[in-house]
DNA sequence: CCTGCTGTAACAGCCTCTATTACAGTCGAA
DNA sequence: TTCGACTGTAATAGAGGCTGTTACAGCAGG
């Protein structure tokens, strides 16, 4: 499957907001963010909507509208972003119910669910170790 | 994105082969496996093809054909299966190249690649801790 | 040679993701 | 109060992946 880029887009947005804030720009519009990410402003607004529902950004409406971080970048970790934009579990179960007369078909799903849950926890723990401030710092070092 | 069920299907197949072998049945056809997974035999053959290319199962052609495990179930871990059937990385990068004149657009991709790599390593380590023998044992306990 | 099964192509249906257009809603500023 | 800029979201389109299905050539034991 072709992996989606939601997490990448969202982290990019937040990193850009963090840099703008540090430079003294309090608010950015979706058009301004879209210019950095190089995609359509609606894509950005949809992602920002997810981030707003998760409490990571705040929006100001009307004239002079725009977006800003709801917390300092040190207190936003990539796990927060992951939860904000990714809904589905990593691994899917059978599309059709397995044959319950077969001992494997009958019992395998909870076993797999357990293993998949542990694997996701390991992934989440790793995503919790990096903050937007970390990403911003390393990004500026690279360039 | 709706997660695919490739890993689930492949683990189901291998667990079923392990149980059949323990019961004295050396070879299973794709039709027999499909009856347990409850899907089309071609789906099973496609998955078995991935597993064969990864060296996890062996196939016998001609009359009396069928499949069997290439190693004992204790020596096949879910990470082997994951590598056999999943190709794409977990998180995708930008579809279009970000704006390189923006400092974030210019430097964020290697930073994200590094974080994503670490997260995948954590996931893989966890998948390496469970074998087909573990799955079979727990599956039979459940039922 | 026959037969049963593999290996794979081709296709359809469904769904997701990205991208884009359009437009109503919102609210500060003039 | 009106204007204008921007948000929020619906609708739509194209591309591509996954599952499921049919079809058929290839293989090899009996």
SSE blueprint:
Two copies of one chain form a homodimer.
Chain A: H1 6-22, H2 30-37, H3 41-53, E1 57-60, E2 66-69, H4 78-85, H5 103-127, H6 132-142
Antiparallel strand pairs in A: 1-2
Helix pairs in contact in A: 1-3, 1-4, 1-6, 2-3
Chain A binds a DNA duplex (30 and 30 nucleotides) through helix 3.
Structure description:
Two copies of one chain form a homodimer. With 143 residues, chain A is mostly helical. Chain A contains six helices and two strands. In chain A, strand 1 and strand 2 (66-69) form a beta hairpin. The longest helix of chain A has 25 residues, at 103-127. The mean pLDDT of chain A is 95. At the A-B interface, helix 1, helix 2, helix 5 and helix 6 of A face helix 1, helix 2, helix 5 and helix 6 of B. The first copy, chain A, binds a DNA duplex (30 and 30 nucleotides) through residues 1-2, 4-6, 29-31, 39-43, 45-46, 48-49, 59-67, 95-96.
Brief characterization of the structure:
2 copies of one chain form a homodimer. Chain A has 143 residues and is mostly helical.
Helix content of chain A: 55-70%
Instruction: Write down the Rg of chain A.
Output: 19 Å
- Multimeric state of these chains? homodimer
Structure class of chain A: mainly alpha
One letter per element, helices H and strands E, the order of chain A comes to HHHEEHHH
List the defining traits of the structure above:
homodimer, 143 residues, mainly alpha, Arc Repressor Mutant, subunit A, two-stranded antiparallel sheet, 2 strands, DNA-binding
């Amino acid at each position: 499957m072709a992996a989606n880029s939601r997490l990448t887009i969202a982290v990019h947005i937040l990193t850009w907001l963090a840099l703008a804030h540090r430079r003294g720009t309090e608010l950015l519009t979706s058009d301004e963010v879209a210019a950095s990410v190089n995609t359509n402003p609606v894509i950005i607004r949809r992602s920002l909507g997810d981030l707003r529902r998760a409490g990571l950004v705040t929006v100001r409406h009307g004239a002079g509208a725009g977006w800003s971080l709801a917390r300092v970048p040190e207190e936003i970790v990539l796990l927060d972003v992951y939860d904000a934009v990714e809904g589905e579990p990593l691994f899917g179960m059978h599309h059709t119910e397995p044959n319950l007369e077969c001992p494997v078909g009958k019992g395998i799903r909870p076993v797999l669910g357990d293993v998949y849950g542990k694997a996701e926890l390991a992934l989440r723990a790793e995503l919790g170790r990096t903050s937007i401030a970390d990403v911003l710092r390393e990004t500026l070092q690279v360039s």
